[in-house]
Amino acid sequence: MVVSVIEQLATMVLLMIVGFILNKKGYLPEKETKGLSIVLTKVAIPANMIILLQREYFYEIWMGFLKTAFGTIFLCILGTILFFVVGKCLKMNFPQLGLFTGGGVYSNVIFMGQPLVTAMFGAEGLIFCVAVMFACNVYLFTACSVLFSYQCGIAKPPMKLLKDAFFNLICFSAIIGVFCFVNSISLPEPLYNTLNYASNTTVCLSMIVIGALLASAKVKEVLADKVVYIFSFFTLIVMPILTKLVMAFFMDGVALGVMVILMGTPAAAALPSFAGGYGNDEKRASEYVFVSTILSVITLPLVAKFLC
Question: What is the pLDDT, as a whole number, of residue 76?
């Protein structure tokens, strides 16, 4: 299993290097990178979530899906409390505290989740990957939105938060996928093929986007800051350990393994743009992404070996 994770991470790193080089050469500047991110979030990832749920229905799998989704929400709440306390110990105040706290639980489960889960658990683990994606997406547009926007002057009213949390393409695609799964509905072949072709671009495009984002980071300045290492330690090490300790009381097997590995992924590649949309520190967010993504190449195999 560890060898599979290392091989998959090596592939992902090579794709990130492609994005890094494209950005440095001027072929993939910031505007085009955002365009790729839109293609990912509006087309590839929604298609991917539907495709992953095109499988035969089993009651045990459905129960595991529900446990995984609710367990993810619970872990996000625990993680929020943990990062808030750590941030306070570092003498942070809002809005930096909100970015530190929300960024800590806004992990890269969407962009990095599928290839890691596939490498470790095969097709069996992908349905639980969708459950984690769905729950994280809801938490992102509710609790994390509040954290990112607090004292930034761009706070959303409660009804707007709820609308954003549930009325978006990722949630819609998850609901469609679950409906088809529970009712054993197979999509017509032309529609399935269309979604499948779009889905197959997810890993490649997401890693290229991450690489392009990392290219804009000022490496020397970032690596000299101890806060990004503390952030990465709790994101990459403490969160998967906490997941293992807490969720082992409620679930086991593949579902637990999927949750552990996904809770150990680095800060999401979309964190800078999402935080910036609320007026928070986009540069700081990119630093969290940069360091945690680089360090995850070391930590994820360790998580796979000792916790999964």
Answer: 95
Q: Rounded distance, CA 134 to CA 225, Å? A: 33
267-291: pLDDT as tens digits: 987 787 778 777 888 878 888 988 8
CB atoms within 10 A of CB 176: 16
Q: Are the CB atoms for 258 and 238 separated by under 8 Å?
A: no
- pTM (2 decimals)? 0.84
Q: Is the Cβ–Cβ distance between 273 and 34 less than 8 Å?
A: yes
Rounded distance between C-alpha atoms, residue 274 and residue 212, angstroms = 16
Overall size of the chain counted in residues: 308
Task: In whole angstroms, give the CA distance from residue 209 to residue 32.
Answer: 9
- DSSP per-residue string spanning 164-185: HHHSSHHHHHHHHHHHHHHTTP
Going from N- to C-terminal start, the domains of the chain cover: 2-306
Contact 73, 138 (CB under 8 A): yes
**The predicted structure's pLDDT at residue 1:** 61
| Residue 86: per-residue pLDDT | 97
Q: Determine the distance from the C-alpha atom of residue 111 to the mean position of all C-alpha atoms in its chain, rounded to a whole number.
A: 6
Residue 104 near residue 292 (C-beta atoms within 8 A)? no
CA angle 290–226–104, rounded 5-degree value: 55
pLDDT tens-digit profile of 99-141? Answer: 999 999 988 887 777 778 877 888 778 889 889 988 988 888 8
> 107 - beta bridge partners?
267
Enumerate residues 6+ apart whose C-beta is below 8 A from 188: none
- How far the first Cα of the chain sits from its last, in Å, is 9
Instruction: Domain 2-306: give its CATH architecture.
Output: Up-down Bundle (1.20)
- Residues of the chain short of pLDDT 50, as ranges, are none
Are 133 and 109 in contact, with CB atoms under 8 Å apart?
A: yes
CA distance 214 to 167: 30
What tokens were used for 170?
Answer: 């990722």
